[in-house]
Write a structure and sequence with these properties.
8-stranded antiparallel β-sheet, Uridine Diphospho-n-acetylenolpyruvylglucosamine Reductase, domain 3, alpha+beta, single chain
Length: 435
């Protein structure tokens, strides 16, 4: 049923205040979701106002799209309906920083960059590595499960979230987990909301596990053939060395990141005490030299540039971006095979996380490349993995489920969605199988 927008507007203004509800098209255009512009923009200032907004939208059957920094808005299927965008930037407080126990509780609208600045004086940081950290919010990172290159070293988003508060579609507020690392008895409900894309509830507060800032950091780059760079990653995986990240860039991706044009690149990131980082770099250089790779050691600005390119790769352009997750043993073969395919007039760009088995493939946003999806699904399944379209322009998502074939657990997922969002008003259609 089409909601009465005028009635919703009036009721939201009474609940939140007139300044917190906007319907000016010039403002709404900035909150377009896959070419669909919302009718209302709601800017609550407290978790209670978030809950009240959801309750009113539910009563009037208005679809709600949660909005943090907008960094991950290209993820997911086309939305069925976009009525009200729930903008959470006012929920930007650090509620508690327990530096002795390495935890922090923050509101969901705070950006990662702002939180890191707050934690730095205590020589601590949150090891999230999402795209566009300057505008990515903690709630958005958690809801989209945006892991980065250091995932296998510090832990995934799911590992680092130990508690949260969530506003449900009914307006009810619930709490999951706690404020200490070992505090969960029974079901860990936090993991249900991590990666749910706001389809089960709106995260308003998150408690996170922190880590000390490393004393030193450096990256060894090794350029050569794809076979050589993959062999370096394989030898590091079986060695006693502990890199924070190992990424492999095919020649096209290396070229776009300002590295040698005709060579693949392995980037190996080390963090820790200065003596330890230096020893790890020396040992890795020795392995790379034995394999015939050309090496360089970078730090400060050049290192930051490289890892920004890696972090932002999945959401940095208007291209079609695939994500394949594969067993580590099949990753070298996949990088080589997929690098041989052209994307329009240019080869596909590939960045692979050699520690987690995640392969990102960026191709020109054209019909021919989106038709490649079926082949990529089969390619990944034959190697014990899976493939999705991670990001794409809206015109390429029409009549397509970007998540691929639905999993065997789909009936359970549907029932979970029905229990948490009976009317299907939270980010409708954007998750697996149109949930």
């Amino acid at each position: 049923m089409k909601p009465s927008i005028d009635q919703l507007n009036k009721r939201l203004e009474l609940e939140l205040g007139a300044d917190a509800v906007k319907n000016d098209p010039s403002l709404l255009a900035a909150y377009t979701v896959d070419a669909k512009m919302p009718t209302l923009l709601c800017c609550p200032e407290t978790p209670e106002q978030v809950a009240a907004t959801l309750r009113l939208c539910s009563e009037l059957d208005a679809a709600v799209t949660p909005w943090g920094g907008g960094a991950a808005v290209r993820i997911g299927n086309l939305p069925r309906q976009v009525d009200a965008v729930l903008e959470l930037s006012h929920l930007d407080r650090v509620i508690e920083h327990d530096h002795a126990n390495l935890t922090a509780t923050v509101q969901s609208g705070i950006t990662l960059a702002s939180l890191q600045q707050t934690l730095a004086p205590q020589n601590q940081f949150l090891p999230f590595d999402p795209p566009h950290a300057a505008r990515s919010t903690i709630g958005g990172i958690v809801a989209a499960n945006l892991n980065g290159p250091r995932r296998m070293f510090y832990g995934s988003v799911r590992d680092l979230v130990i508690g949260m508060k969530v506003a449900l579609a009914s307006g009810e507020q619930i709490k999951a987990g706690g404020k200490v690392v070992k505090n969960v008895a029974g079901y860990d409900m936090c993991k249900l909301f991590v990666g749910s894309l706001g389809t089960l509830g709106v995260i308003t507060e998150v408690t996170l596990r922190l880590t000390p800032l490393p004393k030193s950091s450096a990256t060894l780059t090794a350029s050569g053939t794809l076979s050589q760079t993959s062999q370096l990653a394989a030898e590091l995986a079986t060695s006693r060395l502990l890199p924070a990240s190992i990424s492999i860039l095919n020649p096209a991706a290396a070229r776009s990141s300002s590295f040698p044009a005709e060579k693949a690149l392995a980037a190996v990131w080390f963090e820790g005490f200065e003596e330890s980082v230096s020893r790890h770099i020396r040992d890795t250089e020795a392995i790379a030299a034995r394999l015939g790779l050309d090496t360089d050691v970078i730090s400060t600005e050049m290192q930051e540039h490289l890892w920004d390119c890696v972090r932002d790769f999945s959401l940095n352009r208007d291209d079609l971006v695939y994500r394949l997750t594969l067993p580590l043993s099949r990753l070298p073969e996949a990088i080589t095979a997929l690098s041989e395919r052209n994307s329009g007039d240019a080869p596909a760009q590939i960045i692979a996380d050699a520690a987690s088995g995640t392969l990102w493939l960026s191709a020109a946003a054209g019909k021919a490349n989106v038709e490649w999806f079926t082949d990529l699904i089969s390619f990944a399944q034959e190697r014990g993995g899976h493939a999705i379209i991670f990001a794409a322009p809206p015109r390429l998502k029409e009549n397509l489920d970007v998540w691929g074939a639905p999993p065997s657990t789909l009936p359970l997922m549907r029932e979970t969605k029905r229990q948490f969002d009976p009317k299907g008003l939270l980010n409708p259609g954007r998750f697996v199988a149109g949930l």
